Amino acid sequence: MLALRWGRAQAVAVAVALSWASPTAADSGALFGESARAASLADSVVARPGDTSAIYFNPAGVADVDRPTLVLLGHAGNQRYRFARFGELGRVTDRPVTGYGFSIASPIPGPPWLNRVRLGASVQIPGQTIIAVSAPVRRDEPYSFYYGDRTERTAATFALAVELPWTINVGAAVTLTPTLIAPTDVGFDANRGATVDEGVFVRQDRDLRLEPAFIAGVRVQPLDELALGLVWRQGGSTRARGTFDVRAGAIRVTDVYSFNSLIAPMELALGVVAWPLANVSISLDATWARWSEFRTIYDEAPVPGFSDVVDLRAAVEWTAHRSLSARLGYAFLPSPAPEQTGRQNLLDANRHEIAFGLGLDLEPLTGFALQIDLTARFHVMEEQRATKDPAAFTGTIDNLGYPGFTARGSFEQVLLSLVLPLGESIRAEAEE
Amino acid sequence: MVELSGARSSASLSLVPSPPDPSAPPLEFTWRLEGAEHVIVTGSTLESALSVRTDGVRPLHVTLTTMNLDGGEATSLTTIGLDECSP
What is the per-residue pLDDT across A199-233, written as a single tens digit (0 to 9) for each? Predict the structure, then answer.
């Protein structure tokens, strides 16, 4: 396993670099790094009145944030996979998933026309490393592209939203994702030491660059009981690339490596939310995801190729009391991966997401402006089954998935968000 | 019959292939065999070498993990594949 990781020391520097303007996160675009409220709604939030999670899911929703709001968020979970070739017991691998971040959104103070403009920003930092790109040495290594290194990704998103007349909100955002450039120079100097090892020198440079991915959305609420949202997300990947330049005397060998670690495919999401009762909202989102453009960790198209999919998400939020909300979300996330009949062993299957959450608003009870959101989220995957096609193999068969395999994954996570309003409602001030 | 040996494993990282230092502390070996049905004929999965008899119906995946006294681990995976043969 070749793994390029940046540690905690570099994390601090990059976190500062990402957050100097002002903070927010998936809210930030990082997988599983959104606010607890959005997670409890299974991310069915495209049409919902925005909180800071709108920064990523639909930046138009940021225009609904009418007071400066800071959200502190943290999450911890575990991702598990069981892989077994036919006739074998197989093995189970666990991977912890942790992270924390913060989001902020605010109207711009000033004249009323400027109050219609909102800004938001979000940052999420994984608990282990700020960026991890792990490439198995063997290309047939069973590998989960859906989770993989996507759970260890620093991301920052900055949003701008405008509240237009006729209850139309529009917004745009940019997500910054890191790309690692690491050229390596290996040489040999016979005068450096007594042994062969001492004569070898390795110079490695590292450069972390931030590349943008854009998001644009609109939210319309034609009726008090109904709202619609539409958002386009460009998606993107973290890349790790570099060169090897190996020299020994007159012999020189150069090589190039390029790894592509998916963050998210391009997506187009349409959402609707309705309030059948004043204290109950129901939302439904459909998201088209362009997985057909997916490239593997080796920056290659998978064989056989992937298909585009449509994710379906639904959620209910019940405000049981002015201080207490209960939330339930469900999502069906179909797998874009066909049966793995060839040399690759990409692990994935249809996925069911279930989330529960509670929100406690202390302000009506105590006068202290603090909202606490707590969520539990689960992924249950259907069993993946693949039978290898012998025609796909020529010569020696040494594939790690031969003659076929079954796999099943799961994911459990707990999320906590603290929502801290930092000022009075700009909209309320204007009305007064 | 397949002979497996970790005898060329070294306690320290070497940039160029070199034989292990004979004065270095011994390493711990752990073998994991997966895939083809197999029987260990000599040695064990905790020794530096073992011989295995396999039915050859499917590939045999052999993983060797070595650990030095400091707790440093290195893992290597190789597969004994199947060659196409005429019926």
Answer: 777 777 777 788 899 999 999 999 999 999 999 99
Coil, strand or helix at A403: coil
Helix or strand or coil: residue A296? Answer: coil
ipTM comes to: 0.81
Alpha carbon of A46 to those of A51, A53, A209, A234: distances in Å?
11, 10, 30, 15
Query: Which are the contacts of B79, defined by CB distance < 8 A and separation ≥ 6?
Result: A398, A399, A400, B35, B59, B60, B61, B62
CA distance A387 to chain B (A): 13
Rounded CA-CA distance A392/A411 in Å is 32
CB-based contacts of A349, cutoff 8 Å, min separation 6: A335, A337, A381, A382, A383, A384, A407, A408, A409
Contact state of A399 with B59 under an 8 Å Cβ cutoff: yes
Whether residue B46 contacts residue B87, with contact meaning beta carbons closer than 8 Å, is answered with: no
- Does B81 contact A at CB distance below 8 Å? yes
Cross-chain Cβ contact A397/B84 below 8 Å: yes
CA distance A85 to chain B (A): 7
What is the rounded end-to-end Cα distance, in angstroms, of chain A? 62
Q: What is the DSSP string of B31-51?
A: EEEEES-EEEEEE-TTSSEEE
Sort B16 into a burial class: Cβ within 10 Å, 0-12 / 13-18 / 19+: exposed
Amino acid at A248: A
How many CB atoms sit inside 10 A of residue B21's CB?
11
**What is the three-class DSSP state of A388?**
coil
Q: Choose among A283, A284, A303, A285: nearest CA to A294.
A: A303
Which residues have a Cβ under 8 Å from the Cβ of A194 and sit 6 or more positions away?
none
Q: Note whether B59 contacts A394, CB cutoff 8 Å.
A: no
Residue A226: C-alpha distances to residues A53, A57, A273, A288, B64 (Å): 20, 18, 6, 22, 61
Question: Which of B79, B80, B85 to mutate: most A Cβ within 10 Å?
Answer: B79
Distance CA A124, CA A103 (A): 9
A1: exposed, middle or buried (Cβ count in 10 Å: 0-12, 13-18, 19+): exposed
Half-sphere exposure of A130 (CA within 13 A, CB side): 27
Say if residues A174 and A158 touch (Cβ distance below 8 Å): yes
A321, amino acid identity: H
Identity of residue B55: D
pTM of the model: 0.82
Most confident of A91-100, A231-240, A332-341: A332-341
